[in-house]
Amino acid sequence: MAVLLFMISLYSQADLGSQSVFQGTSTPAPKQADKPAPPPKGAIYKVQTDKKVVALTFDISWGEKAPGPILDILEKKGVKKATFFLSGPWTTTHPEIAKRIKSIGFEIGNHGHRHDDFPKYNNQWITEQVTKSEQAIHEATGVKTNLIRTPNGAFDKRVIQHLNSMGYTVVQWNTDSLDWMRPGPDKIVDRVLKRTVPGDIILMHASDSALQTIDALPRIIDGLRQKGYEFMTVTELIASAGVTSKQE
After folding, report:
1. Please, which of 14, 15, 231, 242 could form a disulfide with 81 given CB 3.0 to 4.6 Å?
2. Where is the NodB homology domain (predicted)?
3. Assigned domain for 179 exists
4. What is the pTM of this model?
5. For each of the chain's 248 residues, which pLDDT tens digit applies?
């Protein structure tokens, strides 16, 4: 399957009318008193850059066997930059792990409350789900989330526009480890190392559905470093490239 390495587009089950384009510079917004910049429109899959930088991202929606060992590996390997997307119910039942993610210095994003596809529901339902998770994460960690990865990565144009209106940047991925399918650690490692490109967002899981990630992650980290890659959070990756949004 041909891959356009320098394109960020919307994934959708229907025709989507917008995409986010990441370039080397960005145009400063007009100065307004303490008004935050609007989130980039569309969904972010990767950024356009020649620098060998990537963002490791981990989704957590259930379980307690995988998160601890994965955090141990990241610390042991000296990986100081990664982004974790946490669901509301998991955060509520595992606040100590969420606190540890924050204390290490990793970035925390929102993964919604009920793990169901957003396009199936109206905007009010989406707002409630995102807000519930946002509150749970804030109560556990003190973090006010502004990044979101929708459950199952499902969205359409309406969902994107609504999440943007809530102040959220929607984060997808360019390289999918498929660790949740449990293909074996060797295949997970091989897939990530072969597919990763500069500016990539790499999807992995720290839920108990992806216990093979524990075996694969050390080799992924070592392999990417051997290729010259450095790790950033998603926010740092976006900032390093600059952002311009356009409608099509």
Report:
1. 231
2. 52-232
3. yes
4. 0.84
5. 333 333 333 333 333 333 343 433 333 333 444 556 677 778 999 999 999 999 999 999 999 999 999 999 999 999 999 999 999 999 999 999 999 999 999 999 999 999 999 999 999 999 999 999 999 999 999 999 999 999 999 999 999 999 999 999 999 999 999 999 999 999 999 999 999 999 999 999 999 999 999 999 999 999 999 999 999 999 999 998 754 333 22
Q: Does a structural domain hold residue 10?
A: no
CA–CA gap between residue 145 and residue 108 (Å, rounded): 7
Instruction: At 205, give phi and psi (nearest 5°).
Output: -130, 145
Phi, psi dihedral angles at 80 (to 5 degrees): -100, -10
- Number of domains the chain is built from: 1
Return the CATH number at 58: 3.20.20.370
